[in-house]
Every structure is written in structure tokens, then in C-alpha cells.
Amino acid sequence: MTALLGFYVLIWPAVTLGVLILICRAVIRDRRQAKKEHREMV
What we know:
This protein is an all-alpha fold. It has one helix at 2-36. The longest helix has 35 residues, at 2-36.
């Protein structure tokens, strides 16, 4: 059980970082597309 908890604690930051990178890439892609079409993001 301790090994499983340790694995969870160590893998959680990696999962969070992956989701954050995914969100940032999507926002950057949308921003570039909006700039190309001469419109605002919001």
C-alpha cells in the first residue's frame, strides 16, 4: 500500500503538468488563429 501511495504522489505532478501543457497549447493555437483572422479572443 505504501508503494502505491508513493507512486500516486510521484505521478500526480506529471499528470498535472501534462494537462497544463495541453491547455496552454490549445490557448496558443486559438490565439494565433484569432490573430490571423483579425479578431479578439474573448
